Amino acid sequence: MKLFTPSVKTQRTRRDLLKLATLLTTAGALPLLAQHRQALAAKTDQPLRIGYLPITDATPLLVAHNNGLFQQQGLNVEKPRLFRSWAQLVEAFLSGQVNAVHLLSPMTIWARYASKAPVKVVAWNHMSGSGLTVAPNIAKTTDLGGTTVAIPFWYSIHNVVLQQILQRAGLEPVIDGTPGPQQVKLVVMAPSDMLPAIANRQISGYIVAEPFNAAAEALGVGKVHRFTGDVWKDHACCVVLMHENDTVERPEWTQKVVNAVVGAQAWIQQNREETARILSKGHAQQYTPHTADTLARVLVPAQFDRQAYERSGALINTGWNTQRIDFQPYPFAAYTEALITHLKTTRVAGQNDFLNTLEPAFAASDLVDARFARAAIDQLGGPSVFGLPDSYERTEVIAA
């Protein structure tokens, strides 16, 4: 296994990471937030502008647009705008260029409490939908010792889950230097760079959103070692983030946005193959650069070979009935609380002092505004539509 050597693309990823780290500080966010306030003062009745990355995490937002669900709610909506990095997406969101995005759930915590950005999580975008993919020669987790594994960002559920997997195997995640035999070096890498990096044996694995795990399988350059949903049951990877100003000043408008997203998730549950076609590069909208076949490996339950993944060890908690990706919109408070608790002990590059005094229960009620998702679910027929408890409460289950 080669040691990881930074490429031109990787250097660009590092610049994006530094830019994102700057944006998600009080000083870095301030100019962008000022731009947003000026735009609001000039025009209060802004249309819905969606920002997204070309990953399956964006599925409900894109399906709602394609199926005209926003228009059915009476909303003026522009075509969703594709971004190539989290830094670009966050910059556009904070400055008000877009007003609804999907964002990594830990990143929303950083945005509100490290950069003091007035943002609100209004729904979950999906559950699970990520995996740890490794090179063909990796047979067990301990084989990762002394190698490098890529993550999409420090503040991601991917980093949290990966470190739990490594620590369970007696491996130490490290950020700097050359890893020892009982250590695994973590590097941040754009998802599009991960496939060539593992194919060229520059890294031993990566943990990321779909369909990049499915793509590695299809190309024969990697195999799924563990699904993240098999470590943290039904976790949220990306959530729907909106500006707090919209939730306060335009609650009816915000409710319509969430109604469409929730309606899209209910539609996706019954139309998985069509969803793969909508997201594919062959569709008229060209939302993503992925093929329908690759997306179907993720979205269509019939293509999820559960028994094969159980034999390989990618699925260990067989009683959970984990799906490769699933959809339900309600943002459970217990998840946010558990996420913050685990982030406090997860290694990240850069400053995370804001976590030291952040109370999980406070953040769960302050960051998340669940009333819109709950109202939208009730309009569709209630929590049973998504197999949710009537109490809208749950207990987090984590087993690495």
What can you tell me about this protein's structure?
With 400 residues, this protein is an alpha/beta fold. The chain folds into two domains: 13-126 and 240-289 and 327-386, Periplasmic binding protein-like II (D-Maltodextrin-Binding Protein, domain 2, 3-Layer(aba) Sandwich); 129-234 and 308-320, D-Maltodextrin-Binding Protein, domain 2. Helices cover 42% and strands 14% of the residues. The protein contains 17 helices and 13 strands. It has helices spanning 8-23, 26-42, 59-66, 69-72, 86-94, 105-113, 157-168, 191-199, 212-219, 244-249, 251-270, 272-279, 292-299, 306-312, 333-343, 360-366, 371-380; strands at 50-52, 81-82, 100-104, 119-124, 127-128, 130-134, 147-151, 172-174, 183-188, 205-209, 223-227, 238-243, 325-326. It has a six-stranded mixed sheet, with helices on both faces. Strands 2-1-3-12-4 form a five-stranded mixed sheet, sandwiched between helices. It has a two-stranded antiparallel ribbon with strand order 5-13. α11 crosses α17. The longest helix is centred in the middle third of the chain and has 20 residues, at 251-270. It is globular and about 55 Å long. The model is unreliable at 1-6 (pLDDT under 50).
Terminal Cα span: 26 Å
Q: What's the name of the CATH homologous superfamily of the largest domain?
A: Periplasmic binding protein-like II
CATH class of the largest domain: Alpha Beta
Radius of gyration: 20 Å
Low-confidence stretches: 1-6
Compute the average pLDDT: 92
Largest sheet: 6 strands, mixed
**What's the CATH architecture of the largest domain?**
3-Layer(aba) Sandwich
Share of residues in strands: 5-15%
The share of residues in helices is 40-55%
What is the string of helix and strand elements? Answer: HHEHHEHEHEEEEHEEHEHEEHHHHHEHHH
**Individual helix count:** 17
Structural class: alpha/beta
